[in-house]
């Protein structure tokens, strides 16, 4: 099992200068390797169905790949000795990042979905470098020992759990400082509980009026962190717009704006974690709608959808459930608000109609509560729940 923990760093002034130098050099190397890939791509391709009458055929060169670009790193340190100050694993990780980016552009990911043309990174866009290996005792006395960098103060607000080993360490520059993100591994695999309590299965309907309403009728209010911070963000954004580009005043305003946006993000993420913890403490199985958030974010409700952060919440909920041996199930969201949860009859409702009244069976309840019950009912065919039901019946008999 893999998980990640993030801690804030407290580097001194000299270490901050060194961090910025490393990021600048790594960004230059990233852009150089990416341009090398583009040069090969442009000079070694031609259209299949067309060829100009007069053309110059260049000398074809081998495709630069991960191994060839990695093998060129020793020569880089000879030509540019200042790169020798950077740890070799950090430089190798830059090559790996270029490889992944370019492969997704040409071939796509595991699902065959291609990404857009990779872009060259500016100084503000390249903010992370990674050590692919770390010693088990790299953290001691609130300091972390980074190879070829030195010891940096770290705020250990929580201890690394027993049984987990540090696999990688990524240093990231954010609006309010520098952070270290550890990728942790525990070879033991958590197993799903062999028996679920029938009273501890709940369905949740995600919404914009309430963050979610569960099948028991409990509604969790939506905090709307971004909308509440808009007034302050507007003032700071004006300061950025009025300042001259490239001036110190503008740079300070940009940093201040970044901090304000990070506050909103941190508040939203804290709410997601606390809400997920509350759900998993009270229930063994959580059933939710498998929403297409990407499509919803292109509608007129885009700001509210992004402010709610449904995808982030479901991701956090799923990860926490997996670590605890619990179960999170996604079901088809089609017509959950229109179908009656008692008789199954379709009761058409517009978006502003917030109450469900079924003339067929007389069911009358809140629209979101009705949808949550439908979501819970649609999970009955899940293989794990079927197996659990079979085990329960066999014990009774």
UniProtKB/TrEMBL annotation:
Span of domain Probable transposase IS891/IS1136/IS1341: 189-298
Top-level division of the source organism's lineage: Bacteria
Keywords assigned by UniProt, alphabetized: DNA recombination, DNA-binding, Metal-binding, Transposition, Zinc
Domain Cas12f1-like TNB: 310-375
Protein name: IS200/IS605 family element transposase accessory protein TnpB
Pfam families linked: Cas12f1-like_TNB, HTH_OrfB_IS605, OrfB_IS605
Entry keyword DNA-binding: yes
Transmembrane segments: none
Nuclease in keyword set: no
């Amino acid at each position: 099992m893999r998980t990640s923990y993030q801690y804030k760093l407290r580097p001194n002034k000299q270490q901050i200068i060194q961090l910025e130098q490393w990021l600048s050099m790594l960004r230059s190397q990233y852009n150089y390797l990416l341009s090398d890939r583009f040069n090969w791509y442009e000079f070694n391709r031609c259209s299949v169905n067309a060829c100009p009458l007069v053309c110059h055929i260049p000398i074809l060169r081998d495709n630069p790949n991960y191994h060839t670009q990695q093998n060129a790193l020793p020569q880089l340190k000879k030509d540019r000795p200042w790169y020798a100050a950077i740890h070799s694993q950090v430089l190798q990780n830059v090559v790996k990042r270029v490889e992944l980016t370019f492969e997704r552009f040409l071939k796509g990911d595991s699902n065959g979905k291609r990404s857009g043309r990779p872009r060259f990174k500016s100084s503000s866009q390249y903010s992370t470098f990674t050590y692919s290996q770390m010693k088990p005792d790299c953290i001691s006395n609130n300091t972390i020992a980074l190879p070829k960098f030195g010891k940096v103060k770290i705020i250990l607000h929580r201890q690394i759990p027993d049984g987990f080993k540090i696999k990688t360490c990524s240093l990231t520059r954010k609006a309010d400082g520098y952070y270290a993100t550890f990728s942790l591994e525990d070879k033991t695999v958590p197993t799903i509980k062999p028996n679920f309590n029938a009273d501890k299965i709940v369905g949740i309907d995600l919404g914009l009026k309430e963050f979610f309403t569960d099948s028991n009728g409990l509604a969790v209010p939506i905090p709307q962190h971004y909308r509440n911070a808009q007034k302050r963000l507007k003032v700071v954004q004006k300061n950025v717009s009025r300042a001259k580009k490239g001036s110190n005043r503008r740079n300070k305003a940009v940093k201040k704006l970044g901090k304000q946006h990070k506050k909103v993000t941190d508040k939203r993420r804290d709410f997601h974690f606390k809400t997920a913890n509350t759900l998993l403490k009270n229930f063994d199985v959580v059933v939710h709608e498998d929403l297409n958030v990407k499509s919803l974010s292109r509608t007129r409700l885009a700001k509210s959808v992004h402010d709610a952060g449904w995808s982030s919440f479901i991701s956090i909920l799923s990860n926490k459930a997996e670590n605890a041996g619990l179960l999170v199930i996604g079901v088809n969201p089609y017509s959950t608000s229109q179908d009656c949860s008692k008789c199954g009859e379709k009761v058409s409702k517009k978006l502003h109609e917030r109450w469900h009244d079924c003339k067929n069976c007389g069911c009358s309840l809140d629209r979101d509560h009705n949808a949550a019950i439908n979501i819970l009912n649609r999970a009955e065919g899940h293989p794990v729940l079927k197996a659990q039901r079979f085990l329960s019946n066999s014990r009774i008999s």
